[in-house]
Amino acid sequence: NILEDETAIQILSSSKILSEEIQAKQEVSVVTEKEIDFARNQFIPVAKHSSILFLSISDLANIDPMYQYSLVWFINLYYQAIQNSEKSDDLEQRLEFLNNYFTYSIYRNVCRSLFEKDKLTFSFVLCVGILRSKAQLIEDHLIFLLTGGVALDNPHPNPGSVWLSDKAWNEIVVASELPGLSDLMSSVRDTTSRWKQFYDSANPHLINLPDPFSSAEDLLWLSILRCVR
């Protein structure tokens, strides 16, 4: 009779205690797992940003096959960024510090291995990747910047034919079909003298574009520069 067997009773009692301890530990592990998942999810923006950087440097192999960088090398730089970037108790600020430090570290280390002629291209590829990841890139602007668009028959007379080439004017007309540039053609036509000042400037990046593009940024500004210069 098991009820009269003290050893069996002790074993059952110990088993019950062990079962309760296991259950308690499982409950703690569930809570801990949720806390770890929550903490890990806070760093997803850093992971996405880092993936953009790695894809950007991977694209360099299309420029020259010798421009290839290993994942181990990339991860080592990332570990250094974690250790050396500025710390903050505010998580959002900490992530910003980490992203900024790692981006600069990648740029600096990659540029050491590039020919001088390829450094500007790498800067552009990196910027495009970052802008695209932040949904701050209008693809039509990028395509136009790279190709100049498709020039069709242009019925609009060139208002600055003395200084503005027909090719540049055709690109201005094409660019006016893009988002954010619909007023470009009319602006050049109505304020030709202002645009000539921009055209003649040795440092166009230091002066404001004529209205309504005085606050144009990034690829929008570059698209206009491509047309006029």
From TrEMBL:
Q: Which domain of life is it from?
A: Eukaryota
Q: List GO terms (cellular component aspect).
A: axoneme; dynein complex; microtubule
Q: Which organism is it from?
A: Graphocephala atropunctata
Q: Which GO terms describe its molecular function?
A: ATP binding; dynein intermediate chain binding; dynein light intermediate chain binding
Query: Could you tell me what this protein is called?
Result: Uncharacterized protein
Q: Which GO terms describe its biological process?
A: microtubule-based movement
InterPro entries, A to Z: DHC (IPR026983)
What lineage does UniProt assign to this protein's organism? Eukaryota, Metazoa, Ecdysozoa, Arthropoda, Hexapoda
Q: Where's it found, cell-wise?
A: Cytoplasm, Cytoskeleton, Cilium axoneme
Instruction: Report the family membership.
Output: Belongs to the dynein heavy chain family.
Record's keyword terms, sorted:
ATP-binding, Cell projection, Cilium, Coiled coil, Cytoplasm, Cytoskeleton, Dynein, Microtubule, Motor protein, Nucleotide-binding
